[in-house]
Design goal:
210 residues; mainly alpha; three-stranded antiparallel beta sheet; 3 strands
Length: 210
C-alpha cells in the first residue's frame, strides 16, 4: 500500500502569511508617513515675513532737476564781490604793515576828520562804517587806547556819546592816506589785468563816479 503524501506543516503557512502582511504593512506605513510629511504644514519663516522690502526693490531717489543758470545780475554781482574782496584784502594788509591801522580804523579816522568839529555820535560812526553797535564800541576803544580819539558827552543830552578826533589821530590818518590811495590803484589795476570783466567794471565806475 503506497505511503501517504506528506502535507505541508500548518505552522509554516501562517508564518509566511504573517511575513507578507508585515512587509505590506511596513510599505503602507512608509507610504502613509511620506503622505503625512508631504501634507503637514511647512514652518513659517517669521523673520522673512517681518523683513521689509529688499534694498534692490526700493525705488531710486528721483534725479534732482538741473540747476538753472544764474541771471546776468547775479553773475555781475558775484564778479563785483570778487573784485571788492581782492581790493579790501590788499588795503588791509598795506595799512596794517605800514601804519599799524586796521581798515575800519583808518576809515573811522577819515570820517572823523571830515566831520564838523571832528566828532561824530557813536551811532553815526557805526552807520558810516557799516558796523553794529558792539563792533563800533570795540573799534573806538582801540582808537582811544592809541590816543587817536577821546570820548565826549553831549552837553545837551547826557546820553549822547561822541567820539572826537585828536591831533595824533589826524596825523596818523594823513600819513596813511598816501599808502591807501596807492594800494587801491594798484589793486584795481591788478584785477583789471587778470579779469577783463573786472577791468570793464572798473573803467565804468571811474567814468561814472570819478
Amino acid at each position: 500500500m503506497p505511503a501517504p503524501t506528506a502535507r505541508p506543516a500548518e505552522s509554516a503557512r501562517p508564518a509566511a502569511t504573517a511575513g507578507a502582511i508585515g512587509a505590506a504593512g511596513s510599505a503602507e506605513a512608509t507610504e502613509a508617513d511620506q503622505t503625512a510629511v508631504a501634507d503637514s504644514p511647512k514652518p513659517t519663516d517669521k523673520s522673512a515675513e517681518s523683513a521689509g522690502p529688499s534694498e534692490s526693490a526700493r525705488p531710486a531717489d528721483p534725479t534732482p532737476p538741473p540747476a538753472s543758470a544764474p541771471s546776468a545780475d547775479v553773475r555781475m554781482w558775484h564778479r563785483f564781490l570778487t573784485l571788492h574782496a581782492h581790493v579790501e584784502h590788499r588795503l588791509s594788509a598795506a595799512l596794517q604793515r605800514h601804519h599799524g591801522l586796521g581798515l575800519s580804523e583808518y576809515r573811522a579816522l577819515g570820517f572823523l576828520a571830515a566831520a564838523p568839529r571832528s566828532e561824530l555820535r557813536m551811532q553815526e560812526l557805526a552807520d558810516r562804517l557799516g558796523l553794529n553797535q558792539s563792533s563800533v564800541t570795540r573799534l573806538v576803544s582801540r582808537l582811544n587806547a592809541a590816543d587817536f580819539t577821546y570820548r565826549d558827552l553831549c552837553p545837551d543830552d547826557k546820553r549822547g556819546v561822541y567820539t572826537v578826533l585828536k591831533d595824533a589821530g589826524r596825523a596818523r590818518h594823513a600819513a596813511a592816506t598816501a599808502t591807501y590811495e596807492a594800494t587801491l590803484t594798484a589793486a584795481l589795476e591788478e584785477a583789471a589785468e587778470s579779469d577783463g570783466g573786472a577791468g570793464a567794471a572798473v573803467a565804468a565806475l571811474r567814468g561814472t563816479l570819478g
